[in-house]
Amino acid sequence: MSLEDNFNFEDFRSVAKKKLPAPIFHYIDGGSDDEVTLKRNTESFSKCDLIPNILASVGEPDLSTEVLGSKIDMPLFLSPVAMQKLFHHDGDKASARAAEKFGTFYSMSTMATSSIEEIANVAGGPKMFQIYIHKTQGLTDNLIDRCKSSGFNAMCLTVDTIVAGNRERDHKWGFTTPPKLTLKSLMSFATHPMWTINYLTHEKFQLPNVSNFVKKSSSIAKGVMEYINEQYDPAMSWKDAEYCIKRWGGPFALKGVMSVEDAKRAIDIGASAIMLSNHGGRQLDGSRAPFDQLEKIVDAVGGKIEIIVDGGIRRGTHVLKALSLGATACSFGKGFLFALSAGGQKGVEIMLQRMREELRRDMILLGKKNIGDLSKENIAFRD
Q1: DSSP code at position 330
Q2: At 310, is the secondary structure helix, strand, or coil?
Q3: Of 61, 79, 138, 214, whose Cβ has the fewest other Cβ atoms within 10 Å?
Q4: Contact assessment for residue 177 and residue 205, using Cβ atoms and an 8 Å cutoff
Q5: What is the reported pTM?
C-alpha cells in the first residue's frame, strides 16, 4: 500500500503498528494506568456539534494564525516528542523539515535524538524547544542559551512530568532506551527486520542535548522513565518557571496547565501562552481532558494569554471546535508520530496535508473565511 493511501489517524496508526516492534509502538500508543484519560482526550470532542452558516461567500479560507510570536499557515503544529529516531531513523530531522514545508511549528523535546544545532541547520521554519527543570541548574541554562544561539523562535516548559507516569504498557512490552533485546522484546524485534536493520545501520541512538551533563552510568542508559525520576526536579516551582521565562526573554509557554488558578498564575509570571495538556494521557490518569477544560480557561483568561489545546487531536473538526471555544491554536503528537513511523518525512507531510485539507474543507462548510471568524456561535454542546 502506498503512503498516499493513508487518509487519517487510524490509517497511519495501522501502518505504524505493522512496521514498529511492539515495545516501540506501544510507547507511542499507550497511556498511564487504565488509560482512561488517554481515551477521554479524543472522546471529549464528540460532546458537541458544529453549527454552520450558509451562503457565506467564503471562497478560499485563510487558515493562518499567529501564535508564540510567529505566523503559521494553519492553526495546528507538532507537539514536542522525545526520541523520535526510535520511530524512524531520520527522527526529528524528518519532522522539522515536514513542519517547515507546511509553514507550522516544529517542537523539539529536551530528550530529542538530534541536537539543537543540528535541527537549526536542517530546518528554517518556526521552532519551539521544550525544556524540563533538571536538578542540574547548569543543564537548564545551557539548553536555553543554546536555543537562543541557534535561532529558536519560542520555548515551552513542561510542568506535568516532575515524576514519570505509570505507563504499564512500557513494562509489559519491555520498552527500554536505547532498545535492548530482552525475553519480552526479542520476538518482536526479530519479526520486524526492516526496523531493526535501519536502527542498527544509521546514526547511533543518543540524546545529545543532555548527554554531556549526565554520567554514563546514570539512568539515561536504563530508560526514559528512570531518567525522569532521577534527573527531573520534583521540587519544581513557579519560581523556576519564572526564571526560565526571564532567561529566555522571548515567547514562552507553560505546557501542562489545566486549572483556572494556574492559568492566571502563568499570566502573572510573564508567560506568553499556556498549553492545556495532560501529556497525552501519559501522566495522571483520571485527569481532565484539555478540550473539556477549555471553556473554563477561556472564560477566565481569554484575551490575556494565548491558549493552545494539546491532546486528543485527530481531525480538522477537533481543531475547529477548539478554536470556536477560544483556543489560539492546537498541537498534536501521536498523529504525526504514527505518520513518521509509517513513512518518515513523507509520512509526516502527508499527515499534515490531510489535516490541512480537512481544515480548509470544514472551514468552507462552516461558512468561515478566517480563523478569527470562529466563535462560540459555531458550536453547541449536547445535554
Answers
A1: E
A2: strand
A3: 138
A4: yes
A5: 0.95
What are 150-195's pLDDT values in tens digits? 999 999 999 998 888 999 999 899 888 878 767 777 788 888 989 9
Distance CA 132, CA 241 (A): 10
- Full set of structural domains in the chain with CATH: 3-381 (3.20.20.70)
Cα 90 to Cα 295: distance, rounded to the nearest angstrom: 38
- Where do we find the cell 529566555? 248
How many residues belong to the chain?
383
Q: Is the pLDDT of residue 226 over 80?
A: no
Q: Which residues are catalytic?
A: 279
Which of 2, 50, 134, 113 lies closest to 378, judged by CA?
50
Comparing CA positions, the residue from 294, 252, 261, 302 lying closest to residue 276 is 294
Using a 10 angstrom Cβ sphere, with 0-12 exposed, 13-18 middle and 19 or more buried, the burial of residue 194 is exposed
**Residues 271, 359, 92: CA angle, nearest 5 degrees:** 60
Answer for the pair 298, 46: CB distance below 8 angstroms, yes or no.
no
Cα–Cα distance, 366 to 375 (Å, whole number): 11
User: Cα separation of 311 and 356, whole Å?
Assistant: 18
Cell numbers 501542562 correspond to: 256
Residue 235 DSSP code: T
Q: Parallel, antiparallel, or unpaired for β 65-67 and 273-276?
A: unpaired
